[in-house]
Predict the 3D structure of the following.
Amino acid sequence: MTPTESELAILQVLWIQGPTTVRAVNEALNTLAAQSDPPDRAIGYTTTLKLLQLMAEKGLVTRDESQRSHIYTAAAKQEKTQRSLLGRFVANTFGGSRSELVLRALGDGQATPEELAEIKDLITRLENDRTHG
Amino acid sequence: MTPTESELAILQVLWIQGPTTVRAVNEALNTLAAQSDPPDRAIGYTTTLKLLQLMAEKGLVTRDESQRSHIYTAAAKQEKTQRSLLGRFVANTFGGSRSELVLRALGDGQATPEELAEIKDLITRLENDRTHG
DNA sequence: AAATATATACGAAATGGTTCGTAGTTGCAA
DNA sequence: TTGCAACTACGAACCATTTCGTATATATTT
């Protein structure tokens, strides 16, 4: 089950903060909304609540109802969700070509020297894995 | 103006085929739908027509009405659209970190040796640009 | 010339996602 | 113990997107 854009925003909060109440998720979202440029409009508390309820039904989050304030936790690891969304995005936007995506991501002069070095190292490791593993 | 998922599927056809009639777009979409696994349901002709009409209103495509069968053309280059969608995707899914995206894209063992070599070359060129340019 | 095929236009229903108001409940403070 | 604050549940409105039926016009075939 893959999250929508709003659901993903909530998952980002849960991945960073760990198990979290509705109120804390809502406040985190609105802090981010206020910081973005131009600032996004604040989201009502019950909107966040409803989304979390729907996400629980879909299995995107689990919840602990033992306290009056329910505690929500992301059901899937961030990496797994990123992989899944990435696959879909690459299929839709780059005809399935991961390397096209990477070329586009690196090819606009935004990457720092550190990032480039890191990626080059990764590639070297991948090549060695392929050769020796 | 950024395309929706269905609109993007149509743009992919237009980028590959160049200026195209509604019917040809519809047939291309349905060929792809039939090939995908599991196969997607076929899309009606008037659905494709309507989408193209809306896309023309939004400025995503231009159309030549000089013949009875209108001819549609993608308004933006594929690369520009990919950049724009990529920016949004990186922001939503990877907290804005392009290198996180790249690490994830390369780190699942799907990339071929040729792709890896190509990307390493690209990085080397980018590093040289930074040093000497 | 009539029938058939193919085209555009467009209203409207169906779908999916987001937003919030309101009702009802529980805890806490005055 | 009364009242206020914070919580969950949930229906319903709203919005964007997708889908298609039907009306109408134009070309083509018989």
